[in-house]
Design brief:
The chain is α+β, with helices and mostly antiparallel strands and 154 residues long. Strands 1, 2, 3, 4 and 5 form a 5-stranded antiparallel beta sheet that branches.
Length: 154
């Protein structure tokens, strides 16, 4: 067997081995859109929504009138990062009487990528250099703890 043929067989075996290790994960509340059609604006109550879909993934922080049902389906191959195949966020908002006011769903098509801000806020004070940080405390301590006598230690 030649070296070229051995390398070819090893790379082929590695490619086949890595390609078969796909894991599909589904997390969150998957909303069945057939059941979502049962939710009628103005008539369906919170209790009925809870019976249909269970407890929400999240509830609005301040008014407690908006429920979110979130789900995500990912695929992971071997040691690579997961890839999002599908995601869904369903928002159900209730009025003051506890009846459905708004129902909408956002999918992967509605996703917007937001750019992060890389600026930093300057702070007051002195910035120490690397050498000052390393050697700044040399000679500052004499080995005696001034608080040792006050704490009742040896």
């Amino acid at each position: 067997m030649t070296l070229k043929s051995t390398l070819y067989k090893i790379s082929l075996l590695a490619a086949v081995g890595l390609s078969g290790c796909e894991v599909i994960d589904v997390r969150g509340h998957e909303i069945d859109f057939g059941q979502l059609k049962k939710v009628q604006v103005g008539t369906t109550t919170k209790e009925q929504v809870a019976d249909l879909f269970g407890t929400p993934s999240a509830v609005a922080t301040f008014n407690n009138k908006t429920w979110f049902y979130m789900s995500e389906k990912t695929s992971t191959r071997a040691f690579f990062s997961p890839v999002v195949l599908a995601s869904n966020t369903t928002r159900i908002e209730f009025d003051d009487k506890g009846r459905v006011k708004v129902v909408d769903s956002l999918t992967e098509a509605n996703k917007i990528v937001i750019a992060h801000v890389h600026r930093s806020t300057p702070t007051a004070g002195y910035e120490f250099g690397v050498l000052e940080q390393i050697f700044g405390n040399v000679g500052r301590f004499n080995g005696k703890d001034p608080d040792m006598g006050r704490r009742g230690g040896p």
